[in-house]
Design a protein that fits this description.
- The protein is mainly alpha-helical.
- The chain has a domain at 1-68.
- The chain contains 14 helices and two strands; from the N terminus they run H-H-H-H-H-H-H-H-H-H-H-H-H-E-E-H.
- Strands 1-2 form a two-stranded antiparallel sheet.
- The chain is globular and about 50 Å long.
């Protein structure tokens, strides 16, 4: 740990994120706030390996705060993520919806109200809809009730032609078991454009039609039960 503290902060954080040594990284964040600031910065890294690892590390750090009695600090940080999703913040928090969803996965009691708020903010800022779709998919059936509230706005996104957006939304609809999306998913079954989605630490690449087909299967299975 001493050796790591002596290395440049940026290099240490990048190395630990790439190797996914989150336990060591979080210990450093507790000891020196410069490391935590660097992790927050890496939420917007151009290297997807670094960015997604930073999202996961941030959620684990919030869980550590929460379990050690620092619940208000967690709520304050989440509010800063929501603020970054607003135009008035001076910039768009591209990774904020994913980070909020990942935090909720580690602290499930935060789904109310932050799950619904994550969807609402993503809809209000169209450039964030891809991020919001990933957040919906990550939360899955936990957020199904909120999907109902925003069903019209979410289904309208299927009218877009961007393959990545459609793939993420298809995956999300399957994960939530949202049956009103079925006709939209069926219209995508023949689409062959490749779409990559980060799932459980792995970058999964499949044709858009396959994402849609898998979503249809999940929804049909959910309807049976």
């Amino acid at each position: 740990m001493v050796d790591l503290m002596e290395k440049p902060v940026k290099k240490t954080i990048e190395d630990l994120l790439i190797t996914r040594e989150h336990g060591t990284l979080l210990d450093l964040c507790e000891q020196d706030r410069r490391f935590w600031q660097e992790v927050r910065f890496r939420l917007y890294d151009l290297d997807e390996r670094v960015r997604w690892s930073a999202i996961e590390a941030t959620a684990k750090f919030m869980e550590r705060w929460w379990c050690s009695g620092r619940q208000e600090k967690v709520r304050i940080y989440i509010r800063t993520l929501f603020w970054s999703m607003n135009d008035e913040s001076g910039g768009i928090g591209w990774s904020s919806p994913q980070t909020i969803a990942e935090i909720i996965m580690h602290i499930p009691e935060l789904i109310d109200p932050y799950g619904r708020m994550m969807i609402a903010h993503s809809i209000e800022e169209p450039p964030l809809m891809k991020s919001g779709a990933w957040g919906i998919g990550r939360l899955g059936t936990r957020i199904a009730e909120s999907i109902e509230v925003f069903s019209e706005e979410i289904l309208a996104v299927f009218h877009e032609n961007d393959s990545e957006t459609l793939g993420l939304l298809a995956w999300a609809m399957g994960r939530t078991g949202f049956s009103p999306a079925m006709p939209y998913l069926e219209s995508l079954l023949q689409r062959k454009c490749p779409v990559t989605i980060y799932i459980d630490g792995v970058f999964c690449n499949k044709p858009l039609g396959q994402w849609a087909r898998e979503a249809v299967g999940l929804i049909k299975t959910a309807e049976v039960f």
